[in-house]
C-alpha cells in the first residue's frame, strides 16, 4: 500500500491528548488532509483554540470534549460523541498521558495506580467502546507508546509500567483480531525523545541531544496508521537499533542507555 494524504480525506478521527504537543500537531495534519476530527484533553480553552485552527486549516469538521481520562465514563462518552456526530469512526488515536515525574522511583504506589488509569485503562475502555464502529468501517487504532515502553530506562518507572502494559494488551488484541479475520489494524507507535514543551521541561537537563521535531513525528504516526503498520519506530535509528540490541545484549543496552543520559543532573533524594 502506498501512502497519500488523500487517504485521510473525509475520515472520522478521534485524537486524545490533542491540546498540546504531538496530539495537537496530529490534529493539524488531519485537518489539512480534510478529515473530521474530535479531540480531547482536560483544558477547554486550549482545545477550543486547536479546534478553531483545525477549521482554518480545512478540517471537514472539528469538535472537542474536555475532561480527565482518569474517569472511564469520559473515555466511553468520547466514543459515543463520535457516533452521534458522524454515525461511525475510522481512526482512533490514543495519545494522552497523565503528569509524571522524571526521577528516581519514590515508592508512591498511588501515583502508579492513577497513571495506569489514565495511560492504560482509559485506552482499553476507549478501544472497547470504539471496536463496533471500527469493525464496521475497517478502521484503525493507533496507540502512542515510547521507547520506555519497550526498554528499561531509568527515572521513568511509573510511566514505563503504563507503556509496557499497552504493548502487552494491544499486541495480544491484534493477534485475536487477525485470528477472527476482523479488519481493524492496531499500530503501536514507539517514540524516542520528541521536542514537545512537556518533554523539554522534564528532560532537557539530562538529554545530550535535542528531541526530534513534533510536527514530523505527528505526521509519521498518521502515516503509519493509514498504512496499517504493526509498529512505528520514530526517530527510526534512535529507536530501532536499541530494540534490535535488546534481546541479544541486554546488559550492553542497559549500559548504553545509562551512558546516554546526564544522570549526574538528576537529584538524588
Ligand atoms: N515527548 C516525548 O519525548 C515523547 C512522547 N511520547 C508519547 O507521545 C504522546 C504525547 O506526548 P507529548 O505530546 O510529549 O505530551 P504533552 O504533555 O504535550 O500532551 C499530553 C496531552 O494529554 C493531555 N492530558 C494530560 N493529562 C490528562 C488527563 N488526566 N486526561 C486527559 N488528557 C490529559 C494534555 O492536555 P491537558 O493538560 O489539557 O489535559 C495534553 O493534551 C504520549 O503518549 C507520550 O507518552 C513517547 C515518547 C517520547
Ligand atoms: C530518556 C529517553 C531516551 C533515552 C535514549 O534515547 O537512550 C526518553 C525516551 C522516551 C522519553 C519519555 C517519554 O516517553 C515521554 C514522557 C513524556 C512526558 O512529556 C515527559 C517526558 C517523558 C517521561 C520522556 C522522558 C525521556 C524519555 C524516557
From TrEMBL:
Q: Short name of one Pfam family for this protein?
A: adh_short
What do the Gene Ontology cellular component annotations say? Answer: endoplasmic reticulum membrane
- GO molecular function per UniProt: 11-beta-hydroxysteroid dehydrogenase (NADP+) activity; 7-beta-hydroxysteroid dehydrogenase (NADP+) activity; steroid binding
Q: Which species does the entry assign this protein to?
A: Gopherus evgoodei
Q: How does it assemble?
A: Homodimer.
- CDD domains listed in its UniProt record: 11beta-HSD1_like_SDR_c
Give the bilayer topology.
Single-pass type II membrane protein
Q: State the name under which the record lists this protein.
A: 11-beta-hydroxysteroid dehydrogenase 1
Indicate the family of this protein.
Belongs to the short-chain dehydrogenases/reductases (SDR) family.
Q: Which GO terms describe its biological process?
A: steroid catabolic process
Q: Which InterPro entries match?
A: 11-beta-HSD, NAD(P)-bd_dom_sf, Sc_DH/Rdtase_CS, SDR_fam
Subcellular locations according to the entry:
Endoplasmic reticulum membrane
Q: What is its main location?
A: endoplasmic reticulum
Give the EC class as a word: oxidoreductase
Which Enzyme Commission numbers does its entry carry? 1.1.1.146, 1.1.1.201
Q: Which reaction does it catalyse?
A: an 11beta-hydroxysteroid + NADP(+) = an 11-oxosteroid + NADPH + H(+); 3beta-hydroxy-5-androstene-7,17-dione + NADPH + H(+) = 3beta,7beta-dihydroxyandrost-5-en-17-one + NADP(+); 7-oxocholesterol + NADPH + H(+) = 7beta-hydroxycholesterol + NADP(+); glycoursodeoxycholate + NADP(+) = 7-oxoglycolithocholate + NADPH + H(+)
What are the alphabetically sorted keywords of the record?
Answer: Endoplasmic reticulum, Membrane, Oxidoreductase, Transmembrane, Transmembrane helix
Amino acid at each position: 500500500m502506498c501512502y497519500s494524504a488523500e487517504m485521510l480525506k473525509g475520515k472520522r478521527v478521534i485524537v486524545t491528548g490533542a491540546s498540546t504537543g504531538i496530539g495537537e500537531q496530529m490534529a493539524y495534519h488531519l485537518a489539512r488532509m480534510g478529515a473530521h476530527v474530535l479531540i480531547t484533553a482536560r483544558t477547554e480553552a486550549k482545545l477550543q483554540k486547536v479546534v478553531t485552527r483545525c477549521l482554518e486549516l480545512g478540517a471537514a469538521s472539528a469538535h472537542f470534549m474536555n475532561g480527565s481520562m482518569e474517569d472511564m465514563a469520559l473515555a466511553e462518552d468520547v466514543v459515543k460523541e463520535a457516533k452521534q456526530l458522524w454515525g461511525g469512526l475510522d481512526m482512533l488515536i490514543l495519545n494522552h498521558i497523565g503528569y509524571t515525574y522524571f526521577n528516581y522511583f519514590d515508592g508512591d504506589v498511588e501515583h502508579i495506580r492513577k497513571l495506569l488509569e489514565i495511560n492504560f485503562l482509559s485506552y482499553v475502555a476507549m478501544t472497547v467502546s470504539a471496536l463496533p464502529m471500527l469493525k464496521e468501517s475497517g478502521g484503525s487504532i493507533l496507540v502512542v507508546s515510547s521507547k520506555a515502553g519497550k526498554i528499561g530506562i531509568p527515572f521513568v518507572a511509573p510511566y514505563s509500567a503504563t507503556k509496557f502494559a499497552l504493548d502487552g494488551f494491544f499486541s495480544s488484541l491484534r493477534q485475536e483480531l487477525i485470528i477472527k479475520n476482523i479488519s481493524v489494524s492496531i499500530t503501536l507507535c514507539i517514540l524516542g525523545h520528541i521536542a514537545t514543551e512537556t518533554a523539554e521541561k522534564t528532560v532537557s537537563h539530562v538529554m545530550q541531544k535535542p528531541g526530534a521535531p513534533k510536527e514530523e513525528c505527528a505526521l509519521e504516526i498518521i502515516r503509519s496508521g493509514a498504512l496499517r503498520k504493526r509498529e512505528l519506530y520514530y526517530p527510526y535509528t534512535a529507536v530501532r537499533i536499541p530494540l534490535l540490541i535488546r534481546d541479544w545484549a541486554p546488559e550492553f543496552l542497559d549500559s548504553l542507555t545509562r551512558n546516554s543520559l546526564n544522570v549526574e543532573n538528576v537529584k538524588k533524594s
